[in-house]
Amino acid sequence: MKQTIEFKVNGDPVNVEVRPHWPLLKVLRDELELMGVKQGCGEGECGACTVLINGAPVNSCIYPVMEVEGKEVLTIEGLAERGRLHPIQQAFLEKAGVQCGFCTPGMIMSAKALLDDNPNPSEDEIRHALAGNMCRCTGYVQIVESIQHAATLLAKRTR
To answer: Does the predicted TM-score (pTM) go above 0.90?
Structure first.
């Protein structure tokens, strides 16, 4: 039996029929066609499905869709501003933080949550914030450098 829930995705209100046992990931990909959210492990271990709910990073593959009622969800598709890449996205391109790209949306969303809370994180703080995100292509060096560069770009933007 389906139920209707209401929440915001990338700033837009949505009204969607869901089955109560569905994870948020299924709704984002299958119902709302937001393909930037990746299906990885399906167990909340790899971080490929990371989205922000009310600003906090969550693994959407294990987040019960009924819990999103009335909340705000931000996906990688919602980061671009007026057709321009968000500074975090730009930094990942400039510093080669994107390898195969599969983990990139989750990494960027975790980075956004970190930089929103801590605009000048140390390398250890960055690595801690990424602990729930796995990348099989890199040793995370370029990803950490990308987030450090993003912090610089964001600081310039606020001056």
So the answer is: yes
